[in-house]
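Handout, page 2. Input:
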Amino acid sequence: MPRINLLPWRDELRQKRKKEFFLSILAAILVGAALTFGTKLYYQGLIENQEERNDMLRTEIAALNRQIEEIEGFEAQKDRLLERMAIIEELQVLRPEAVHLMDELVDVVPTGVHLTEVTQAGRKVDVAGITQSYSRVSAMLRNASEESEWLRDAELGVINTTGSGPLAEGEFTMSMQQVPTTDEEGP
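Output:
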């Protein structure tokens, strides 16, 4: 029988299989690397996209915060204007009261009493003056408390006599409340 040597054939087959095995390992490594790189690129794209969205949101939030500050500034300005309008309206309402007060003081002060100072703080009116006799001060108290439409609650503060003899005069202070011309409590 002729002898056939199968060893080189087997060697070649083994070499071929080894080559195919290394090629498949290399292909698997390349595919794995490609998949890893592709996955990395995909997630990096997602992260960049989200960062762009976050930057856009930060920009919009900053713009909205500026608008909110503007609105708050407008609201503060509106409040200041409303306060001014209220003050002006109150002054318009109170303007005739000064006229009534001066007119009423002329009617309340009897002959022989001279006012040297008139001050007003809110509704309280303080007067200081000189009188020829105590009876004239009591007449002024009575006029302010009982007979006046625009004054009430007159109280004598201090009365001092200056000088001596028949020409002695008295210095006095008095406080009273002015009656409002309108209802302060509202409708």
